[in-house]
Design a protein that fits this description.
Length: 349
């Protein structure tokens, strides 16, 4: 099941609190990544630069990536303070190896990914991630392409049910989808609050419910609009290609769909048995990663008390071996990773 949150916003995986962005599990990330002066690292999810700043403070060189054009503002302060040890790119972390082209290095010493939404994104109502702060149904981190409103108003009921069921892990996806379609026949659904109310009216809300009934529907839309699962899978393959022997890959995730991808990837790449549900279990080729600790690391009690959003964080890490990177194979993961909606493409509703 997707992890819940008790704050009533749609995104359990937002980092930080309402007044600022607090990096999640920073000490554990640094312990796993071991940034070292003079070495070269990639922070694929710059956000407010919490991890990036800590890596640069250790004297390392850093390429930071974020797909949100607004993140560039926070990168300016780091550029000023760390000069040419720091470079920032607006782009997708799924292409992190391509972003390194032209940099004179013989491989990367560490890659860190902190998957999810930043406090800045969730707190700005106009970005449309939250149903606590009413805003347009947008949810595009990169601010281009299809918005959540496009998906909600242009997909047929079958596709909406698959989307909300698979990416939101919502048991009542059929009921939610039918209610959405019935309502949009009257007028398009364009505000976050409207969608939240439709879901709440359909599923009801008990006093004892820990999360708002629309949480899972919002999660599904956000994941789809930003292609979050396929991007994560691409980033893992790209990191495998670009890390040098002994280089470290550190990933923090906030819900079960993401964590499963990281777990399946490491399980496959450490070369014991295939992590795929669709392939027979076979011995793999030479291991591309060593995993000293196969268990997910969780945030400590004090951090969770200070930042409740750290409650659902899971950190997994592994060390690159000398063996050649394998081919990208999306069959390692569940079908939800490459989910596409045919009705959205054809405009059939
Ligand atoms: C949880 S925040 C990272 C916070 C950061 N670790 C810090 O300490 O400030 C996640 C960030 O990743 C970015 N992001 C999400 N998906 C991305 C992708 N596919 N490519 C690049 N950036 C992405 C989001 O825009 C957001 O700013």
């Amino acid at each position: 099941m997707a992890s819940g949150n008790t704050h009533g916003d749609a995104n359990p995986n937002v980092a930080g609190g309402p007044t600022g962005h607090v990096p999640v599990m920073l000490d554990e990330v640094l312990e796993a990544l071991q940034p070292t002066a003079g070495e070269y690292y990639i922070d694929g999810t710059f956000g407010a630069g919490g991890y990036s700043r800590a890596i640069l403070d250790r004297g390392a060189n850093l390429l930071a990536i974020d797909k949100d054009p607004n993140a560039v503002a926070s990168s300016r302060e780091l550029l000023k303070n760390y000069g040419n040890r720091f470079r920032f790119v607006t782009g997708e972390f799924g292409e992190l190896d391509a972003h390194c082209k032209g940099v004179e290095i013989d491989g990367v010493d560490g890659v860190v990914l902190d998957i999810g939404v930043s406090s800045m994104q969730i707190d700005e109502a106009a970005r449309g991630f939250s149903f606590q702060n009413d805003g347009p149904l947008d949810m595009r981190m990169g601010q281009t392409g299809l918005s959540a409103s496009d998906v909600i108003n242009r997909s047929d009921v079958k596709d909406l049910t698959r989307l909300i069921g698979m990416l939101g892990e919502e048991r009542h996806a059929g009921r939610v989808s039918r209610a959405i379609v019935a309502r949009r026949e009257l007028e398009p659904i364009t505000r976050t609050i409207d969608l939240a109310r439709i879901v709440e009216k359909t599923l009801g809300r008990k006093h004892s419910d820990k999360i708002h009934p629309a949480t899972r529907t919002f999660q599904a839309l956000r994941i789809f609009v930003n292609q979050e699962l396929v991007e994560l899978a691409k980033a893992l393959f790209a990191a495998e290609r670009i890390l040098k022997t002994g280089g470290r890959l550190v990933v923090v995730t906030f819900h079960s769909l993401e964590d499963r991808i990281v777990k399946q990837f490491f399980s496959d790449r450490r070369g014991d048995v295939s992590g795929s549900r669709h392939l027979p279990q076979t011995l793999n080729d030479a291991p591309c990663f060593i995993q000293e600790n196969r268990n997910a690391i969780r945030a400590g009690k004090t951090e969770i008390e200070n930042n409740p959003r750290a409650r659902s964080a899971k950190l997994r890490w592994a060390i690159r071996t000398e063996h050649a990177a394998r081919k990208e194979d999306f069959n390692l993961f569940g079908r939800e990773v490459t989910l596409s909606l045919s009705s959205l493409k054809t405009g059939r509703v």
